[in-house]
Amino acid sequence: MPGKMRPAFGGKALWKVSLNTKSAAAAHILFLQANAGLKQEVEEIRDRIKATGEPLLHSVIGLAT
Q1: pTM
Q2: Residue 51, Cβ neighbours under 10 Å: how many?
Q3: Which of 6, 29, 37, 59 could disulfide-link 54, Cβ–Cβ 3.0 to 4.6 Å?
Q4: Quick check: 58 pLDDT over 70?
Q5: Angle at the Cα of 33 from the Cα atoms of 36 and 20, rounded to 5 degrees
Q6: Is 45 exposed, middle or buried (0-12, 13-18, 19+ CB in 10 A)?
């Protein structure tokens, strides 16, 4: 993850998720779904950073971190 986005991902440089399958065919489908979800989340975070300078939603609404 780019440095500015890391707070939205728990401070981690790498995002990974278990697909919980041993089947290559199922893993392919699950990967496509997980990747699409990640792309959507990254776009939302980029928009939030552009609008507020902060990657986290609670920073936008003023809640304590």
Answers
A1: 0.74
A2: 9
A3: 59
A4: no
A5: 135
A6: buried
